[in-house]
Amino acid sequence: MRQVKLTEDQQNALEIKKHVTLTANAGSGKTFVLTQRFLEILLTTNTSLKQIAAITFTEKAAGELYGKISRSILDASLKAKNEKDRIKYEQLRKQLVSANISTIHAFCAQILREFPVEAGIDANFSPIDSSLSEELIHISLNEAIKSFEKNKEKNTLLHWLIRIFGSVQILAMQLESAINNRNSVVALTKKIYSSDPNSIADFFTSKVETFISQIFLLHLEPVLSSVQRLNAFAMQKNSRFAETISELLQRLENKPGVLTVFNILIKLKENILTNSLTVRKDGYLGRKLPAELLGDIIPVESYFSSIASFENFSDNLDLHEQLAIFGKNFLLLFNTALAIYENKKYDLGYLDFEDILIKTKDVLELPAVRQKLSQKYHFLMVDEYQDTNEIQYEIFLPILERLKTGNLFIVGDEKQSIYKFRDAELSVFSKTKSDVHKEDGLTLMLPASFRMAPMLCAFTNHLFHNLFADANPLFNEVTHADLICAKTEELDGSIEILLADGSKDQHPVSEAELVVRKIAALTDNGQTDVKLSDIAILCRKRSSFGALEKTFQKYDLPYTIWEGKGFYQQQIISDFYNYISFLANPSDDTALTGILRSPFFLLSDTDILTISFQPGNIFWEKLTAFAKHDSQATLIVSLLLKHKNFLQSSDLVTLLRIICEQTNYLSIIASRPQAKKEVANFEKLIQVTRNFFRQGFRNIFDYLKYLQKAIEDSAEEGQAQVSFDEDAVKIMTVHQAKGLEFKAVFIFECQSEGVNAKIKAKELQINKEFGLMTKLPAENNFSGKYMSPPIVDLHNFLETKKEEAELKRLLYVAITRAKNHLYFSATIKPRTTFHSKNFLSLLSQGLNSDFTKNEIVHSVDLEYLEQKENEETKISKPTEFLINISMDVRGEPNFKKTQNVNSKEYIINLSKIIDIQKEEIISASKVAIYNQCPTKYLLTYEYGYHELYDSYKKRSPQPQAKNSYFEFGESNEEMDPNIAIAGSFQSKSIFSPETKGKIIHALLEKNLPLEKIGTFIQKYFGAQKLEHKPDEIRTFIEIIGNEMTLFYSSDTYRTLTSATNYQNEFQVYLKEKDFYLFGIIDKVVFSERLIKIIDYKTDNIPIEGLPGRAQEYFLQLSFYALILRKLFPEKENIILQIVFTKFPDEKHMHQVEKSELDQLETFVHAMVSKIRSKDFSKNLDHCGQCHFADSRNNCIF
Known about the structure:
1197 residues, Rossmann fold, 5 domains, six-stranded parallel β-sheet, 45 helices, globular
């Protein structure tokens, strides 16, 4: 029944009679298996679609899974062997719309709507976004704080908390964070803080003692043996450190309690190690150490460095009680604020994202609800399970009655767990595996990578075999699992480390420039098939994007920021914020001057200064006064008044679009390097605005307040995304790259350090096991040093170790995005050591290299998966990987595909325009035909004249009276390819003017020599699959050859080919209000102050008819001139030249005047307006030259 080829491991994962946990290596076909399992359930059981739930963690992933399932069903339907199967597949595909394929939040919302009474919520609840949730939390916090201020005892407690955190703003921020994590905080309240402070302090101390035993004392003996050997050597030197160390070692021999032992170990660390955490030489071991003691240095340094974060351990144990009091006091205020927040949401019928999970978990505690859901859902599949957390675990397992009913399938990869900052808990995967094992389920793996080249597989296995060694689950460390390579041995692969010199006293090539040069070499040398769109640059932090953008713009390297953050901090948001702010309050001088300078109106600083000298108390009055004698200011004032009135009478979404249309804002910003991103961000602003006013009774001032706060605080909001297929390098964070793959991957700024996980003074962190963690002022001295209670030191230690483990997994994710080529880049300084917490240090550790050599070579045994028709084998082969280390990449990058001509305001698009939705494309052909006759335009473009003309010919066959051939753009493909211009009514024979025109234009574009014309024409007819007699083709080649010989020998041709700055087949488009002007110009020649537009015409007319025909064609060229005038305003003159290829030296030139272009612009705008209003009147004077007229020159329409 299945018609796809699966590996044995993938086949095993389709076992649907048992629970399955599946660990999927990078590139192993995880989503493919999920899709096939879904289909296996549908096709081999009587399960309905509604009895299957597939859970993903993003809407995008849910959409992709739905699409793959739908396509698989369609494919199966097309390949069905009988009608019965085909009908079944078709029914499944139609029913698929009701499938439960969704995110965890959408799935839980569905459960709550099914059981609203049991959940204690409004059946018609509204999920709210983070912005409205944040707004309600702020209101609730203010009310809670005010209520505490009114109570004397609570006011004292409040001010103590404020002094702990330093300000009421920081306290409010920590409370907001706690409310957003209220599931954990409420659980801690029950688990820890329901006791008295002394009991809580004992709990803290007990936890410290337990973890110290597990982490530091379990393997202490080998370390102490190394210390004893080193100290015995130091005692010979009469070292005072050695004597102290000897005394401390003797105290340990008495086997004191755990906390005393640890306190002694801390004192040992202070005597053995320097501040830089290396074993002392001066005053202790000296500079020369016997060879037999060298092996003791590393374990001693490693062990005692790990306890370096514990300071004043014994003294700070007393702080546990103060930390307990802090926690109970903080929770009093937290519970008050939370109750207010919950009441507000209940009154309004709102649930936030956290509510949806919490209330689903709570309602699943009811046996009746669990029973109904276990009957409803027979199969539950969860993707990316390594990114789940405890609350999600407590939702999935109860639905299946703790695996006593139904079927659970989870898939993920612990090695790719990189969302700790989003509360992902790696331990949940292990816990679920254990649960499945107890129920006789299957624990499976997909080891084969169908993504990575053999060299990259070998490198990855070698590196992470070392980095993932000796994994400790307490630190969220994971074990390594080798990739099995499913690619052929011959597949191309390369690995390179690019090191930029970071010396301050030099000016070397920067790291970003090294990357650009390597991209140029990778895409230009012809040795690879890598395109720009195949390349991704991955960064740990978004702050790295700036250096890349600056360098990419310097070298004209196309790029796109993938799902970049900082949406509200983009200039386009500030511009529209200023615009609406001014409309709402004309006294806002800052907003008004901002929009006058912006792309809305583009006034210069000189203009602004001039306006400021006008009479008036506010800037609006000054602008109004200035408008009395300045036409541009008059237009600005008129628009602003119009928009101000609109603000009071209509919705803001409509006004935003009107502002864009009437100010030409989007057309202006189209010249920016990230124009597509800017336009996409505007559309996202529209959506944000629409959503804002959908939620509750909100006015324009609420909107402005929301937008202002978002600009100030919401730096994490993602920007709108542009097309993934754009031919540009993708810049993204490693987290954003999860789930993606690229032929070439650059991992940028590998020397970049992560964020310190340790708690800072006046900061609160929530530990699900230990409680509310913060540093406290010693003896309540709020202006003095803040100290860490030992439980906080333990929290810091564990969080640091977990961050280090996640850093390794983050590197794993980054590396496994690459298919063929992998590059690491970093900036290093002389004497760089590799002990930091960054990718470069991990590479040094895993490869055992300090990168001082030019290359690193290793050979490892790599297992290959080989699949034949009915057989699968896994063969181990020695595989070598070579890593080149470079500090320079030669060559000057040049990504310019065309002449570097400056366009200040608009985009010049050098690719063919096919279609732009919602916006008309006005070409020279359309203008020419509408100018000839609006009815002719109607028949040609609105109705499609082919069918109409054919119908007319059948009804009234008459000899064709028109033999004049006009060439308006068809050879350039300005029109829709399915529409030809007037001359195409003639026979499509080999000698048709249309065929001749297309071929001559192609020859001129390619500038082919005469001897290659015949071959080109033969290939043309072959490609077009046109059948002609050989003698016809020879005659045609002779005709074209004669005309081209004449043209190539002309003075005109020699003049044109002598130009140095020119473009052939130059495509341009220009946003003109809400439509586009578009043209493809045969040739454009640029000089310092002049533009010459040349258009080749292949008309077959006598020489005496050339002037009149040229005059008709000048309208087409004037249209091009209209576009170019706006694209290149610095050019003073534009000359039009018509070149008839049959009479090339006949001069037909015209210097276009500004007044002519102004008139044409007016005509074009009027034309668009009439087309939209369906005004297609007849021009009867044109019937004599129109193919829509009969032999008596009467219009057929």
